[in-house]
């Protein structure tokens, strides 16, 4: 049997977007991974709208898919739970309103070359159509990551493709919850010497932000200082293995010759 891809989707009150996501994504999954080689893993973060009923319908429609329910909203816990319950070789982490077919196609073709592929909304400013204040917030967060953690990338949040066997042990060790879980996960992966790729993805506003900017700034700054305490106990065990790609590489879906980089991959 070939590789299986789990599409991990955290859900919190998404009744307006769930059906459109599933209907748009399912045909692309069939075309890219092949029939029967993928499934949805929905993690409901204590939704209070009609999302649970819609999720039940989605799971019934796509065999192998499942929905896991958490008692309260917690983005980090949702991601960790999805990874641990994926029962797949690879996972594609997305938000309901933010996924990219070209990123998925390129990542699936190159899945054996990397342990983690990050879809970066900041890697190419010509593709970032978020409101200026949201771009400023992302810039500020990334600047803190560079200053305090030696982060060499441009983004830790958003869609990702990951190898479950490589990433799951690090996900279990993560301490941070909510919005900084995936930041800690990326930092741990870098320090462990995992092979990582960062590729640009387009992003634009599809709905109003759920949190006020001042609250976002406060939460991010507070969590960064907590994360610093956590990461001070995580040693660098290998040199950095981090590749950046251009959007043209993604659109061309070119395979790389990994023998030129690491003979561990036949």
List keywords for this structure.
266 residues, two-stranded parallel sheet, disordered C terminus, alpha/beta, Spore Coat Polysaccharide Biosynthesis Protein SpsA, Chain A, 8-stranded mixed sheet, 41% helix
Short description, anyone?
The protein has 266 residues and is of the alpha/beta class.
* Name of the CATH class: Alpha Beta
CATH superfamily: Spore Coat Polysaccharide Biosynthesis Protein SpsA, Chain A
CATH architecture: Alpha-Beta Complex
Individual helix count:
9
Helicity level: 40-55%
Structural class: alpha/beta
Strand order of the largest sheet: 3-2-1-4-7-5-8-10
Number of strands: 10
Element string (H = helix, E = strand): EHEHEHEHEEHEHHEEHEH
CATH topology: Spore Coat Polysaccharide Biosynthesis Protein SpsA, Chain A
Low-pLDDT parts are 257-266
How many domains, as an integer?
A: 1
Radius of gyration: 18 Å
- Termini separation: 19 Å
Mean pLDDT reading: 89
Shape: globular
**Major sheet summary line:** 8 strands, mixed
């Amino acid at each position: 049997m070939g590789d299986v891809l789990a599409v991990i989707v955290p859900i919190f009150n998404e009744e307006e977007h769930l059906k459109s996501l599933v209907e748009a994504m399912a045909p692309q999954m069939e075309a890219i991974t092949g029939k029967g080689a993928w499934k949805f893993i929905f993690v409901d973060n204590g939704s209070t709208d009609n999302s649970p009923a819609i999720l039940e319908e989605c799971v019934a429609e796509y065999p192998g898919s499942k929905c896991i329910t958490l008692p309260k909203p917690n983005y980090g816990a949702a991601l960790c739970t999805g990874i641990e319950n994926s029962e797949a070789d690879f996972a594609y982490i997305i938000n309901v309103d933010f996924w990219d077919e070209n990123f998925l196609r390129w990542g699936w073709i190159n899945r054996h070359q990397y342990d983690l592929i990050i879809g970066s909304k900041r890697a190419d400013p010509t593709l970032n159509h978020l409101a200026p204040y949201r771009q400023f917030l992302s810039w500020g967060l990334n600047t803190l990551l560079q200053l305090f953690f030696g982060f060499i990338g441009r983004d830790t949040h958003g869609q990702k493709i990951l190898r479950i066997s490589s990433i799951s042990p690090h996900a279990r060790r993560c301490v941070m919850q909510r919005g900084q879980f995936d930041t800690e996960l990326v930092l741990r992966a870098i320090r462990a010497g995992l092979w990582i790729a960062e590729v640009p993805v387009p992003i634009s506003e599809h709905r109003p932000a759920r949190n006020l900017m001042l609250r976002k700034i406060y939460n991010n700054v507070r969590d960064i200082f907590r994360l610093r305490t956590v990461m001070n106990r995580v040693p660098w065990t290998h040199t950095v293995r981090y590749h950046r790609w251009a959007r043209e590489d993604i659109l061309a879906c070119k395979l790389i010759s990994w023998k030129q980089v690491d003979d561990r991959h036949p």
